[in-house]
Design a protein that fits this description.
alpha/beta, 6-stranded parallel beta sheet, oxidoreductase, amino-acid biosynthesis, methionine biosynthesis, 14 helices, ACT_dom, 11-stranded mixed beta sheet, threonine biosynthesis
Length: 421
């Protein structure tokens, strides 16, 4: 089986390397020799450790009759979308690691593919075979929830803050020095990378055709050492989680920093590692852990899709032939989320402030679960108040935050995180 690699960067080089060094093993497992015959690059002068033809002529490669599978590793959304669409129209198989492409165009591409093999295991959680798990291993289950650490950059930063007491900016700088974060880290720390991955998983589990703009996405930028003190004192840790949860009211889809009890398995996942918890109605909770990024881990997932294609295992792209069987499910509006909340307020330390805050909470249907005051975080007459709530409605919490922000005794932007027990 002859393949073309469209975008021979870190992952593309690793795909070629693994196909070469494990050629005999892969052939035994797939029943075919899988051989890269051409790679498309933007700059031919850049040195690459591959032993096949490289070219900048993308159109010429698309016209080749001797290519059986195209591996799309270019990145971006619009250009890869038009490229993959053209390949699928020609009834040629595609494997991609492009989560952004699938976050926006997975249903259109599934319709165009119409049975033509389309692999995308590498688009979510790197070397963790979570897509195959949902489509195949857990296919008998009605998925109750998917919760996961899906971005290694954020997990590294939050681990540094929790374990080493690092400030956010220092932890981010260290992540950039180590190559875990980009020069512009917005896509990672803003939660958008994790949101793209969550949408792909939710499509497989629930048939939900949502885009990033349709769901709640919050990043980790405003977490500070005061929050770290509180969560440690109350036996929580902080993780950026992607959450898809089936309720009687619909499907919750959200990405945000989350307080997780330290006894939970997800709380124990540190550094750049990823982990995803899936709860099925039959199997209960299952947990998947591993490297979420990196050239070799991502290449491993790409090649697993190539092996499936070589074996002619052409299951439906998103895991079902009849999407209408899932069409009764809807995405819950962000305001309808029900969960526990953590709230941090910087206020004047004077008589009546706490009573005013608790009264305002009560007026907005918010019940306090725990409370902590630490005056040593601020100078002068300021103090920091921490609250956790019983189960509350997102709309009520957001209304409270807007109202309390306008109170004269509140001296900084209120901060909130959600809690997953």
């Amino acid at each position: 089986m002859r393949v073309a690699i469209l975008g021979v960067g870190t992952v593309g080089e690793q795909v070629a390397k693994i196909l070469s060094q494990n050629a005999e093993l892969i052939s035994a497992r797939s029943g075919k020799n899988i051989v890269p015959v051409v790679g498309v690059v933007r700059d031919l002068s850049k040195k690459r450790d591959v032993c096949f033809e490289l070219t900048t002529d993308l159109d010429g490669v698309l016209e080749r009759d001797d290519v059986d599978v195209f591996i799309e590793l270019m990145g971006g959304v619009d250009e890869p979308y038009h490229l993959v669409k053209e390949i699928l129209k020609r009834k040629k198989a595609v494997v991609t690691a492009n989560k952004a492409l699938l976050a926006y165009h997975r249903y259109e591409l599934e319709s165009i593919a119409n049975g033509t093999p389309f692999g995308f295991e590498a688009s979510v959680a790197g070397g963790i075979p979570i897509i195959k798990t949902l489509r195949e291993g857990l296919s008998a289950n009605d998925m109750q929830s998917i919760k996961g650490i899906m971005n290694g950059t954020c997990n590294y930063i939050l681990t540094s803050m929790m374990k080493d007491g690092a400030e956010f900016n220092d932890a981010l700088k260290k992540a950039q020095e180590l190559g875990y974060a980009e020069a512009d880290p917005t896509f990672d720390i803003g939660g958008f990378d994790a949101a793209h991955k969550l949408l792909i998983l939710a499509s497989i589990a629930y048939g939900i055709n949502a885009r990033p703009e349709d769901i709640l996405i919050e990043g980790i930028e405003r977490i500070n050492t005061a929050d770290i003190y509180f969560v440690n004192d109350f036996d929580y840790t902080i993780k950026l989680l992607g959450i898809a949860k089936k309720t009687t009211r619909g499907i919750e889809l959200r990405v945000h920093p989350t307080l997780v009890p330290k006894y939970k398995m997800l709380a124990k996942v540190d550094g750049v590692m990823n982990a995803i918890s899936v709860v099925g109605d039959a199997v209960g909770e299952t947990m998947y852990y591993g490297a979420g990024a990196g050239g070799a881990a991502t290449a491993s997932a790409v090649i697993s899709d190539l092996i499936d294609i070589a074996r002619e295992q052409n299951s439906p792209m998103l895991g079902y032939k009849n999407q209408n069987t899932l069409s009764g499910l809807k995405i819950l509006d962000k305001d309808e989320i029900l969960t526990h909340y953590y709230i941090r307020l910087k206020v004047q330390d004077k008589l009546g402030v706490l009573a005013s805050i608790t009264n305002l909470m009560s007026q907005n249907n918010i019940s306090i679960d725990s409370f902590l005051q630490k005056p040593n975080f601020d100078d002068g007459d300021m103090t920091t108040l921490f609250f956790t709530t019983h189960t509350s409605r997102e709309a009520d919490v957001q209304k409270f935050l807007k109202l309390v922000k306008n109170e004269s005794f509140v001296k900084d932007e209120p901060f909130m995180m959600r809690i997953e027990e």
